[in-house]
Specification:
154 residues, six-stranded mixed sheet, 4 helices, 25% helix, globular
């Protein structure tokens, strides 16, 4: 099983909020737009140098369809996952992208992340099935469990 990278807990707080935390908070705010009844997920994709937002997303139904889940059964709600919605907007060809997501990706999202040239994934909470993290690592994507600065700068 692949183990995510954890940031050191004894590291002193920087003078200002890190861009990684800014993007993670953007993902958390985007998750609030989700219409999924079970798990609201937000995602932000940034350039490798963290200077540009390339795509944003949250889970929900396809454009033009009702803003609700098709089912309340786990894994069958019918929502397009937040990661996929942000990947569609960010484009697949640009290498080295960085993704910030509120919950670690499922296996199918992990495979799409690999194919869309994302180099690193930061996630806030672990999804109920950790297999997506293993897929990311097998595909050469760096995985970071990012919660170190969650309560700072509030």
């Amino acid at each position: 099983m692949a183990h995510p990278i954890h940031l050191p807990e004894d590291e002193p707080a920087p003078d200002r909020i890190p861009l990684e935390e800014v993007y993670m908070r953007m993902a958390e705010e985007l998750a609030k737009r989700s219409t999924c009844a079970r798990l609201q997920v937000g995602s932000v994709i940034a350039s490798s140098d963290l200077t540009q937002v390339l795509g944003i997303g949250y889970n929900g139904n396809a454009r033009g369809l009702p803003n609700r889940c098709d089912s309340t059964q786990a894994g069958a709600c019918g929502c397009i996952h937040g990661e996929l919605n942000s990947l569609v907007k960010a484009g697949a060809q640009l290498p080295g992208k960085v993704m910030f997501v509120t919950a670690s990706p499922c296996v199918m999202c992990a495979k799409s992340i690999i194919n869309c040239n994302v180099a690193r994934v930061y996630y806030r909470e672990a999804y109920r099935d950790p297999a997506g993290l293993d897929v990311l690592r097998q595909g050469g994507v760096e995985v970071v469990h990012y919660d170190r600065w969650r309560d700072q700068w509030r």
